[in-house]
């Protein structure tokens, strides 16, 4: 790695030195898990405002995968504060999965604001290990802005394929690494070592689409887009769905 990039990474690290010290001492993770729900509660309305059309278009396809039972059963991996609830079709049954139990009260608030969604299950589990969810038991799995912070993406996708019924679909919206020749990528590389602490393990320079292309889905509909966030390190996104 070039010396000037290392120098800039160190400069960013020094600005966030207290966080790096707490992380080194093993004290940052518990603090971050309590702070993250409050941070996302504030950030989510802005993100949804800018990405409203993209989300509406993506989730307009959910009912195409409704089972013969008449009620769409949807599992959301990394449900967070329930940022996607407003875009789900009326009457769908949502199973919420997140490894952070501190999101539970925020989910209750989101459900109160989105009464068209039926959700009674909050499963505390990571996406790569969901034994509480039965094989082939859901029509759709949704995952937005989660795979960036997952270490074992292959494990998550294997679990997704396990819990999806045949013909079910995995819907995704994720920020990804930028073009290596762009200024955006340059900024991502500089911020990456510190960003992972702020974003609960989030990695800015992850080529998430490659994992999806290599997973055992029968069909993959994937587009690269630029989110409308000027100068943001998370502008590059992928959006789409994959069919089991």
Key structural traits:
244 residues; alpha/beta; 7-stranded mixed beta sheet; 7 strands; globular
Mean of all residue-level pLDDT scores: 93
By secondary-structure content and strand pairing, the structural class works out as alpha/beta
Number of beta strands: 7
Count of separate DSSP helical elements:
8
The Cα radius of gyration reads 18 Å
- What coarse outline follows from CA principal-axis ratios? globular
- Strand coverage percent: 15-25%
> Separation of termini?
39 Å
Q: Main β-sheet, in a few words?
A: 7 strands, mixed
SSE succession? HHHHEEHEEHEHHEE
Lateral arrangement of strands in the main beta sheet? 3-2-1-4-5-7-6
Low-confidence stretches: none
Quaternary state of this entry equals single chain
Proportion in helices: 25-40%
Notes on the protein architecture:
With 244 residues, the protein is of the alpha/beta class. The protein has helices spanning 3-15, 17-24, 28-50, 52-59, 104-113, 153-163, 183-198, 208-214; strands at residues 73-77, 93-98, 118-124, 138-144, 164-175, 219-226, 236-243. Strand 2, helix 5 and strand 3 form a beta-alpha-beta unit. Helix 1 packs parallel to helix 7. The protein is globular, with a radius of gyration of 18 Å. The termini are far apart. 34% of the residues are buried.
Task: Please outline what is shown here.
With 244 residues, the chain is of the alpha/beta class. Helices cover 39% and strands 22% of the residues. The chain has eight helices and seven strands, in the order ααααββαββαβααββ.
């Amino acid at each position: 790695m070039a010396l000037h990039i290392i120098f800039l990474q160190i400069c960013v690290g020094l600005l966030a030195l207290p966080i790096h010290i707490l992380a080194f001492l093993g004290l940052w993770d518990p603090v971050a898990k309590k702070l993250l729900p409050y941070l996302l509660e504030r950030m989510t309305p802005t993100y949804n405002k800018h990405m409203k059309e993209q989300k509406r278009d993506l989730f307009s396809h959910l009912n195409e995968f409704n089972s013969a039972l008449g009620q769409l059963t949807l599992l959301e991996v990394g449900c967070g504060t329930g940022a996607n609830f407003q875009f789900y079709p009326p009457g769908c049954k949502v199973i919420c999965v997140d490894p952070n139990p501190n999101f539970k009260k925020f989910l209750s608030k989101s459900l109160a604001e989105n009464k068209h969604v039926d959700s009674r299950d909050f499963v505390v589990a990571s996406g790569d290990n969901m034994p509480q969810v039965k094989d082939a038991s859901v029509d759709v799995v949704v995952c937005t802005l989660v795979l960036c912070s997952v270490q074992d993406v292959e494990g998550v996708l294997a679990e997704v394929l396990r819990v999806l019924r045949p013909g079910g679909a995995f819907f995704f919206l994720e920020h990804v690494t930028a073009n290596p020749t762009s200024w955006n990528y340059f900024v991502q590389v500089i911020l990456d070592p510190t960003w992972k602490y702020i974003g609960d393990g989030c990695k800015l320079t992850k080529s998430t689409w490659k994992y999806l292309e290599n997973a055992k889905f029968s069909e993959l509909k994937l587009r690269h887009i630029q989110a409308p966030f000027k100068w943001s390190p998370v502008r590059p996104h992928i959006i789409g769905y994959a069919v089991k």
